[in-house]
Amino acid sequence: MVKLRLKRCGRKQRAVYQIVAIDVRSRREGRDLRKVGFYDPIKKQTYSNVPSILYFLEKGAQPTRTVYDISNKAEVFKELQISKTKSNF
């Protein structure tokens, strides 16, 4: 199973995170399938590659609670609902 979760990088006391699609059995710093975003909690900056996130969500990937909250603030899930309604017609 694939999850969308945070991968820690940066230096001590100055952590930044990459949002990655990764196998559930991998470690936090393990090998990821694809990088789909970036999150800096200190500067409150977020970058999300929305098409990649939507691709993995449509394939059944589950976001962690933190990634879900970050994506929800970026309104990624509205894009997912819009694409589902387009495919129903």
From TrEMBL:
GO terms for cellular component: chloroplast; mitochondrion; small ribosomal subunit. One of its GO terms (biological process) is mitochondrial translation. It is found in: Plastid, Chloroplast. Its main location: plastid. The keyword Ribosomal protein applies. SUPFAM superfamilies: Ribosomal protein S16. The keyword Metal-binding does not apply. Keywords: Chloroplast, Plastid, Ribonucleoprotein, Ribosomal protein. Belongs to the bacterial ribosomal protein bS16 family. This is Small ribosomal subunit protein bS16c. It comes from Annona reticulata. The lineage of its organism: Eukaryota, Viridiplantae, Streptophyta, Embryophyta, Tracheophyta.
